[in-house]
Design a protein that fits this description.
The protein folds into two domains: 61 residues, no CATH class; 49 residues. Helix content is 51%, strand content 10%. The chain is built from five helices and two strands; from the N terminus they run αβαβααα. It has a two-stranded parallel ribbon with strand order 1-2. Helix 4 packs antiparallel against helix 5. The longest helix is centred in the C-terminal third of the chain and has 23 residues.
Length: 111
């Protein structure tokens, strides 16, 4: 939290990504990772302690990121080649695209 506050002195265009989000157990059922308990805690901490206008987006944990790095594959490639895991990779790809869109919005609002 302290680092975010310090950065805001120099740049107010900040985006927080809650990473490595996981379901905690069988009772953890939700369609949208915004509803994840850890994500809610991150949002609440940022919005209450620093600034309620800072966007906070989810990025669930996935071993796919290791595959992307180790084998040079993309999320788009994974989503289009794995029939069984296609819905899983599409959700992950959607989160990644949402983060990219939020970054573009922050950059376009800077001028």
């Amino acid at each position: 939290m302290y680092a975010i506050s310090e950065i805001m002195y120099f740049n107010t265009r900040i985006l927080i990504v809650g990473t490595k989000l996981r379901m905690r157990g069988k009772d953890d059922v939700f369609e949208n990772w915004e509803d994840c308990e850890d994500m809610q805690a991150i949002k609440q901490a940022i919005h209450m302690r620093i600034n309620p206008k800072i966007p906070v987006l989810p990025l669930q944990y996935s071993p796919a990121f290791d595959l992307i790095i180790d084998e040079g594959k993309s999320l788009t490639w994974l989503a289009n080649t794995s029939k069984q895991a296609k819905p899983y990779f599409k959700k992950l790809l959607r989160q990644w695209q949402d983060i990219g869109s939020a970054i573009q919005a922050l950059l376009s609002n800077s001028s």
